[in-house]
Design brief:
The structure is a single chain. The protein has 251 residues and is α+β, with helices and mostly antiparallel strands. It has 8 helices and 9 strands. It has helices spanning 2-30, 34-39, 43-54, 81-88, 112-126, 167-180, 198-218, 240-243; strands at 58-61, 66-69, 95-99, 102-108, 131-137, 152-155, 186-190, 226-228, 245-250. The strands form 2 sheets. A 5-stranded mixed beta sheet has the order 2-1-3-4-5, covered by helices on one side. The chain has a 4-stranded mixed beta sheet with strand order 6-9-7-8. The longest helix has 29 residues, at 2-30. The chain is rod-shaped, with a radius of gyration of 48 Å.
């Protein structure tokens, strides 16, 4: 009977020893030890702390708010947050963002000179060691559409179709426009005063219009771009001096 108990005891001892041996082998293969298995801190806790500590500093600021991420202990200008927001209020849409070493300013500004001034102001506010990238946009000037000159009016002496002395000066804007705008054309209309017969006056008005056309062609304007257009009423308005005229319009 005693022999049987001894045999069972030995068997249990060998089983326990085998289990312990397998456990030790598993620990060796997995790099674990009894102390680390029972007492080590969870890896996720250490990893999470390191992740927070390693997050670099970054920020975004407008005139109304300032947000920060990461480690800001080495940012010397952070005490000037309110001054920075007040400075950003100088622009309608200015925004500043960046990190410890570089900041970028965006928005719009009225001129290149003002843009340069803002770079200098921001450098002074943030201090040395911070590179300023000025990305402010200067709007393009509004496109000004060219306007054709007003109707040129040449006033003639009584009974004559010779161009007045100031004709070249009067026609200069019209000629310049016609040269620079080849798609345009000149419309010439002659008028006369109330003196004399209607038939002779109409001939005189036509001769004055022709003299004006000759002046345009002499300046290099093609005849195909000049139209002689008889007005519905050839008798000019105003006093007699104003009535004896030729009008040159642009179309």
């Amino acid at each position: 009977m005693m022999h049987t108990h001894q045999t069972r005891y030995l068997q249990m001892t060998w089983i326990v020893a085998l289990i312990l041996a397998l456990l030790l082998l598993w620990m060796l293969l997995t790099g674990r030890s009894p102390s680390s298995a029972c007492c080590a801190e969870p890896e996720t806790t250490s990893s999470g702390l390191n992740s927070i500590a390693e997050t670099p500093f970054s920020f975004v600021s407008t005139s109304s708010q300032f947000s920060v991420e990461g480690n800001d202990k080495d940012v010397s200008w952070l005490s000037k947050t309110e001054a920075l927001k007040a400075w950003l209020a100088g622009g309608l849409d200015w925004q500043l963002k960046g990190d410890t070493n570089q900041v970028t300013l965006t928005g719009t500004v009225e001129s290149e000179a003002s843009k340069q001034a803002k770079t200098e102001e921001l450098n002074a506010l943030l201090g040395e060691g911070v590179a300023v990238v000025n990305a402010l946009m200067v709007p393009s000037p509004a496109l000004v559409m060219p306007v054709a000159p007003e109707v040129a009016k040449l006033y003639f002496d009584t009974g004559k179709s010779t161009l007045p002395e100031q004709a070249s000066t009067t026609l200069e804007p019209t000629i310049e426009w016609l040269i620079s705008h080849p798609e345009s054309k000149a419309i010439i209309s002659g008028f006369h005063d109330a003196r004399g017969s209607r038939e002779n006056n109409q001939k005189l008005a036509k001769a004055r219009a022709q003299a004006s056309m000759d002046e345009l062609t002499a300046a290099g304007i093609e005849a195909s771009r000049i139209e002689m257009r008889k007005p519905i009423e050839t008798e000019g308005s105003g006093n007699e001096e104003e009535a004896r005229r030729v009008e040159i319009a642009i179309e």
